[in-house]
Amino acid sequence: MERTMADSGSEDIAVIGNTDLTPSESQNNVRNTMFEKGTNLLKRMEISVAEAEKRTGKNAVNMQETYTVYLIETRPVDAVQEATSPVPDSLWRRYSEFELLRNYLLVTYPYVVVPPLPEKRAEFVWHKLSADNMDPDFVERRRVGLENFLLRVASHPALSNDKIFRSFLTEEKVWKETVFETGFQAKADSRIKALNATFRVKNPDKRFAEMKHYGDELQSVISQLLRVRARAADRLYGVYKVHGNYGRVFSEWSAIEKEMGDGLQSAGHHMDAYAASIDDILEEEEHYADQLKEYLFYADALRAVCRKHELTQYELETAAQDLCSKKQQQEELATGTVRTFSLKGMTSKLFGQETPEQREAKLKMLEAQIEEGEELVKERNVESGEFVKGAWADIERFKEQKDHDLREALINYAIMQISMCKKGIQVWNNAKECFSKM
Amino acid sequence: MKLLGAMMQIKRPRFYSDSNNSVPSEKSPPVSIPADISGEMLDLDEDDDLEVFSKGTSLTDGNSLNPSTQTSPASMINQYKFQEEEEDADAKDLFVTVDNPESHVTAIETYITYRVVTKTTRSEFDSSEFEVRRRYQDFLWLRGRLEEAHPTLIIHPLPEKFVMKGMVERFNEDFIENRRRALHRFLNRIAEHPIFSSGDDFKIFLTAAPGELISHKKQGAGFLSRMGETVRAVAASVRGVRNRPDEFTEMLEYSEAFSQKISALHKVTQRISKEQREYLEELKECGPTLALWSSCEEALAEPLRCMADSLDRCCQETEEQLKHINDELIPDLHEYVLCTDTLKAVLRRRDNIQADLEAKAEALASKKTERESIRDELEKLEDRQEWANNALRSDWTRWKKIMRTDLQSAFIDTADNNVKYYEKCLAIWESFLHSQRAEAEGNKNVDYS
Question: How far does B441 lie from chain A, in Å, by closest CA?
């Protein structure tokens, strides 16, 4: 099974909790890790988002604000392997800078399914989890998400070589200027306008249409799953926590009993432990939710690529159509026949034809336009062809990555459930023992 | 107990009526409201004060002067042998079951009867097997009779008339099954009790044909004598007791405290049931969502389907676990909530007997005339007091033992049930993992041991 680019670098692929790996599995992991490292930036560089810190400062409208910055650490791989472990290069970035980077990548590599950032605001929360961006748990999960983003970009064959990406990792101060200098924002604006406009494509590539539909479905089904999960988590929290009341009442009851007292008291402690255990359990489940969320956002990126294909296709078709009509005009002018009904044709019939000089001028103009048009069509054809090729390759890569990652997410979920069941068995067996001593 | 026996040899109290301590058992047994655990709990009815005096017509058709009450020599001797019989588990010579609920429709009403099967080797029974049908009213009658006859003995509670406020359907399956289970428990407790099980009322309940039972029920003390007892009872409860012995005060305090704790446990368990039910409802949606997703996928289709399947199976297990809580733990706890009312009533009646005695003693001290007759009455009351106290004392010990066993086994069963639940879910997830790994290796025969 081919592993994807994303899980490499400092991440141990075999992060599947406390279940034992068979020897063949761990060998497989090692092999895949090395394979991945061989194809991209991560061969040479170790990247991590190590820490998060609160800062205050003045914002654009000169108001005081509090925000979080994240420490990006990079270190040449060789150094690590030699175990000399020098201090890594590091710089601080805030979430908005990551957004800027991603927008740049979106515009510059329209055919790539660009890895998503972790969510801006906490969504699909169950009640205990704070939706506050300043909440330490949220910040921690965001840190992990940002690291994941960088690793995914760094393991992408095209994206990892981008200069702006490289300098994002290494140049703290001047990076923003450099990004703006690329002028990507102008392109971004026009792209956004174009993409938001409704247009009809005559011959869309079927595969992209299917992919877009798949993106829609994926987004819908993952949203639903996340919603259900959040509600279930909320309820499960209630179940466990109410058991804490057993602890309290058993303890009070044990005070009025002679023989039953000890058994009740110790059983009560186990009930307390049971009630407390749900916090860790749900914290772990949050990681599973995060994995799903990543692909929820990936679905968006996928749809964006398909949409861009439509746009390029549309532009090609428009150019071809223009050329076609120009050529037709040329023919009509040259042969004097009016094939299509046009007001000009009518007026010229009524009011007489143009002078030969006028016709000549017109023909010359048309010729030039047709030449231009043909160039444009050629260009657009090439563009479209390249886009289709590049995009489809990246979509294939994405599909494999998604299949692998989501499969692993399901496995992780199962492992989590197993751990939870084991804890439950232990607690209730302990309680049973205490009850026996009642 | 030996003292009691000795006392019985010295004095055989004349037969007296205990109807002033009767309890109208027609009303639904009250439930006390515990310290609030959660505001979302079921609203339980306000504590209907268990009035000691009977309200005349509300008294169930019961003959409180039936000679088969505990004052008969035979039953006293039985009580004396109380302790010894208890230890001998093999002495169980009467087995009773309650099952087979059936609905009966008449012009006036619809009601349910239950089949009561008795198997016994006791000599006082004409045969060794009996089968009758009884309705809830009949159980109420039996308990009422026992209460009248043994005011300071602790009788196991009956299931309530209506369990939940706002529950419209009296005859839904769950309600009937819960009631049947509780009635079965009730009869078995009576059968295990050396005094209750030896009475005529119990025997008739188990064996009589419907006509017989009805006519037996109709026998009872005259109205006037009941009135007299009622007046005395009112006077007694108003007076209150002056010098309650410490041991009974302790019992009262224990009853209060125990009542709070058991009610709290009941409420907590109900809350757990509610949360678990709501969790289950959410969980039930996961499987279908994953199945839907699986239909959009290619390579992922199989693992997603597998997971959907696993989640569905977990839902089934959760359903079963919840069933145990609802069908066993909650009713078990509820029975003991009801028990606490019995405890308090019994203690109250004992107090009233003492109040009676104290009043009589006062009368003796203050009156100049009729001193002889007052002294006689005083002696009677003293005997009654002694008897009642001893009865209560021994039954209290008995009850505590049974309570401990009952609740212990209820909790052990629940713990067991929960362990089984987690074990089954564990197996489901392990099998999912196994199937996925087999897929990964592309070889379903890989040994993972």
Answer: 8
